[in-house]
Amino acid sequence: MSFFRLLNFGITRGSSISKTHQSNCECSPNLIKIRPSSSHDTIRVPIEVVFSDKCNKALAFTLEERQRLCIHGLMPACVRTYDEQMLAIESNFHSFESNVGRYRYLRALRQGYERLYFQFVSKNVHAVLPIIYTPTVGLACTVYGMLYRGMTGIHITKHDRGHMKQILSNWPMRRSVKAICVTDGQRILGLGDLGANGMGIAVGKMELYTALAGIPPSMLLPICLDVGTNNKSLHEDPLYIGLRDERLKGDEYVCFVDEFMEAVVSTFGDQTLIHFEDFATPNAFMFLNRYQHCYCHFNDDIQGTAAVGLGGLLGIQRITKKPLEEHVIVFAGAGSAAMGIAYLLKMELMSRGLSEADAAKNIYFYDQDGVLTTARKSIPDILCVFAKNMKETKSLETLVEQVKPSIIMGATSAPGLFTEKIIRTMAASHERPGIFAFSNPTIKSECTAEQAYKFSDGKAIYSAGSPFPPVEFNGKRLTPGQANNCFAFPALVLATMTVLATRMPDEIFLLAAHELAEFPTNEEMQSGRIYPLVKQANEVAYKIGVKVAKYLIENGYAKRNLEPEDVEEYIEKNSYKLTYGSSLAETWAYPKMKPHPSTAGHENKHQKKK
Ligand SMILES: NC(=O)C1=CN([C@@H]2O[C@H](COP(=O)(O)OP(=O)(O)OC[C@H]3O[C@@H](n4cnc5c(N)ncnc54)[C@H](OP(=O)(O)O)[C@@H]3O)[C@@H](O)[C@H]2O)C=CC1
Ligand SMILES: CC(=O)C(=O)O
Ligand SMILES: [Mg+2]
């Protein structure tokens, strides 16, 4: 018998509890007296469905529901309200001494009570993001095998070639999947190659889709491509969950990922959004170039970070009242994050009328080989324009003394790279030097908030990839910004999924950057915080998501037949409901996802051929 036939047994969809039935119970908040209900009122739902992560309301099952679902007596008498449930979770959450302990608790909560979990995350973004996202998720990935407690997504290994479609079809909610976040685990935050343990990152990113952007979890599928790991310590770790082989490489690796992309669209449809996360930089760029014009694909480390990086730079422009083209900017690190930001920054400057060479003139790159000069052999294409005809130096301090940057952007995973001398040199030449320490998790930051404020005499406009608490300096409370792509990707995926965009063009990342820069008030900007607060992340996702969705419609990228003025209403109507259904039928109807209406042949009037 199908799942739905079981669910519908004995109940008319949409019906509510009858008056007669209600009169069978006498309830006070904590004291319940029941007379047995008549048999036709009960619903024979398998107990594993009632108590499944999707349906379980824990102690919030009402007395009527307990009776009708034949689960009465399987839990204590207390019927908890929403606030009481939140209190219970909050008390548990705070009772753990370590953040990994909290992470572990939240995993169990998600796996037992999905809706309750997302209620808690959405209402406590400020406290929970540092656990399910950076920095704690990074630490959790290092011990992921130990923390593993069952299915969170799909693992496809290098032995699955030729069978990927079949594996993707094994996902229980395959009919509702609309977006995928995939990693091959090779560059997990700044922690390096964590192989199959990287699944924790894909899960964390997708949880933010739901918690911040309201996308139903049933539409989301985290995937780990287990192509081996070159991390020897994982090969020897008895709790490691992945293949203990060297990584696939070369053509074999590319063909593997090609087959994966084809399997995704043939299983879930060609509108599926495919988010790449934490691939090693050369592969990240290679796949972005390969797929961005034929799939609905983006790379968050390159493009999401670029939107947030440029948003921060536009914030510095607001504070200093000096146009970005007049700032001297040093990028420390030449990986996905730094190159992505520099590319978008160049695009922004060229949109202001500068030539490519002029846009790149004041932008310097520095990596493990020192400053990027024209003398360097084999420069990645994207960086050529930034290479300078200057004397080579291996020292970042020397470079900073030489070019006196007003802004430094670190994405190196090299903690302490921004020394006291560097920060003091910048503060001596600039009233409000911009210091970005993008690297994650916290232990990888190029400098801490305290160092940035102390060594700059409180002048620094400091932001970091991971959260830092406010710092008291000379009687002032200075609040760092969080320069993290979590202020961009939820909005971008919300927009893309809302309008069923065919592609994710560069312009939407530029637009997101501009919108993000407008968030902080003038007062907040002047105090040195150029990003919104983490607790505003839902509002950021919604507002930027709406703007980007309208842009996609107006520029012919949308497949859904939706007018720009209807975007807000559509989002509100279709977003994940954090509260339980108001009737039994609504509660139990949850797993039945309505397929997106086919829009084939219904191009909206804004649509151009792309
Ligand atoms: N805040 C956010 O939203 C995001 C943060 N990140 C973080 O940024 C960091 C980098 O990631 P990604 O861009 O993918 O970069 P990669 O790890 O691919 O590259 C790191 C770059 O830093 C350089 N580097 C390493 N050590 C030093 C050093 N001591 N001095 C100078 N340069 C150094 C490397 O140089 P070489 O090539 O010569 O080895 C390389 O160019 C990670 O910590 C990641 O977590 C990433 C994406 C988003
Ligand atoms: C935030 C993020 O995507 C990273 O550090 O890789
Ligand atoms: Mg990342």
From TrEMBL:
Ranges where the Malic enzyme N-terminal domain occurs: 110-292
Segments crossing the lipid bilayer: 327-345
InterPro entries in the record: Aminoacid_DH-like_N_sf, Malic_enzyme_CS, Malic_N_dom, Malic_N_dom_sf, Malic_NAD-bd, Malic_OxRdtase, NAD(P)-bd_dom_sf
Alphabetical list of SMART domains matching this protein: malic, Malic_M
GO molecular function list: malate dehydrogenase (decarboxylating) (NADP+) activity; metal ion binding; NAD binding
Pfam families reported in the protein's UniProt record: malic, Malic_M
SUPFAM superfamilies reported for this sequence: Aminoacid dehydrogenase-like, N-terminal domain, NAD(P)-binding Rossmann-fold domains
Residues covered by region (Disordered): 591-610
Binding site for a divalent metal cation: 277-278, 301
Domain called Malic enzyme NAD-binding: residue spans: 302-553
Keywords carried by this UniProt record: Membrane, Metal-binding, Oxidoreductase, Transmembrane, Transmembrane helix
Active site per UniProt: 133, 205
Cofactor(s) listed in the protein's UniProt record: Mn(2+); Mg(2+)
GO terms under cellular component: mitochondrion
Superkingdom of the organism of origin: Eukaryota
GO BP annotations listed: malate metabolic process
UniProt binding sites for (S)-malate: 187, 440, 484
Annotated cofactor note: Divalent metal cations. Prefers magnesium or manganese.
Family per record: Belongs to the malic enzymes family.
Protein's name in the database: Malic enzyme
